Known about the structure:
Blueprint: H1 4-27, H2 34-42, H3 56-66, H4 77-88, E1 98-102, H5 123-127, H6 145-149, E2 155-158, E3 161-164, H7 174-178, E4 184-188, E5 193-195, H8 203-209, H9 219-223, E6 229-232, E7 235-238, H10 248-252, E8 258-260
Antiparallel strand pairs: 1-4, 2-3, 5-8, 6-7
Helix pairs in contact: 2-3, 2-4
Amino acid sequence: xxxxxxxxxxxxxxxxxxxxxxxxxxxxxxxxxxxxxxxxxxxxxxxxxxxxxxxxxxxxxxxxxxxxxxxxxxxxxxxxxxxxxxxxxxxxxxxxxxxxxxxxxxxxxxxxxxxxxxxxxxxxxxxxxxxxxxxxxxxxxxxxxxxxxxxxxxxxxxxxxxxxxxxxxxxxxxxxxxxxxxxxxxxxxxxxxxxxxxxxxxxxxxxxxxxxxxxxxxxxxxxxxxxxxxxxxxxxxxxxxxxxxxxxxxxxxxxxxxxxxxx
Length: 263
């Protein structure tokens, strides 16, 4: 009897709890649109946030419940957009192929290091010490934090500077998120003229730290027939909506800070 009564009480409590949980599950059950699960399965599950949502599941829910655009998944590209359109029974939205670009060309031939760093070999760690080891505090630190997060093997450190392989890039933005100098941006794959410098120092200071740096001379701005390039705060930047890849700015740049990144 010593063990029977507690066992019975425990069993009865378990049965009651089971009944209550079953009732609660039915009362509070929320119908989930099966399209959300199907769209989630059509996405690459990168959960990179490039679409502007917390992850693939959140994006799938936003498409069904909030009417979010169906072409926002960069890693999934046109293939994912077509699958989503088929699930929703509508025409596929146009997907513009995108790629990352590293706005720095300060390789080992163009600049030098200011000191050697013996700590953890990561760009984030080095950045904490005097802004980095390089003479240019705006440039690529070159220890490959971006490489370590790329799941597509689309970015490499070459001669001290990270370089993107556009045709391998899924434009997920993971590399841009980890770069401590914010050197990486996402742009249309078809627009291959880029300013490979992020310095905002004046021309004299830039030349002292990097031979390949933009000196803010505005020659590119004057030569561009489409008004696609502007120099502000000693730094040239391209408006990709206006750029036609004519290459006039690239040809005119006296320090060759503007390059064609087609491959």
